[in-house]
Amino acid sequence: MQSVFTVRASSWGRLFDCAHAWEGTHLLGMRKPAGMRAQLGTAVHAGTAAFDRARIDGTVCTPDDAAGVAVAELHSPDREVDMAQDGLSLAEAERIALTLIVRYCMEIAPRLKFIDVETTLDPLEIDCGNGLTVRLTGQMDRGRVADTEGGIAINDVKTGARAVQDGQAVTRGHAAQTGTYQLMYDATKRVRTVGSQIIALSTSGRAETAISPIFDARRVMTGDEDRPGLIEHAAAMFRTGLFPPNPSSVLCSRKYCARWSTCLFKG
What we know:
By secondary structure, the protein is α/β, with parallel strands linked by helices.
């Protein structure tokens, strides 16, 4: 009998940060409200995606129009949001979103030639042997695909107070998600992407923006001849049914973990 474990592209980081928390959310169905900062990120992604989609379609979407999409998302989330969780007010979130949208439309978007925005990708099933399949999923709802000089690259927008450091887009911790997107896009579109790229939008007071160099995130997932990738490591975990906890995780708190209140291992 084949066992199939589904892993969303955006959840790989959590799986290897604290597998016990990942199991709670993705296998046991435990949920918690999102915070205001997460909703801010969703709003910024919605606004920038509207702007980029219009460019591809040849329709009109001004920075003000894109900002309107972001504000509408802030005020009408499609999920439960705990407005008091992060200490960020709705008014402040709106101010940050408007600043970032305008900077993105004026500074970032003109530098990139997108061919896909919010691409729907087919699930990719990988036979890991011994009756176990890992199914990769993800709709790239925050991702874009750019036609660069070197070839097609996956672009992922990342927001956060530390998204930009020393003027550079932070790529650390994002390879698993974008690498999954690379594999899925390759399989869905029957092309081979050359790498991934992070578009970083800082939600700190300075509201910085940056674009990373293109890097090959695919190898993080697949490994190489001498080293297994994350898919193989995950398969070993799924075979045993053991999802080890990480009490030292910076996300080990009631704020971030749906399993925290009943967890035996919490710090």
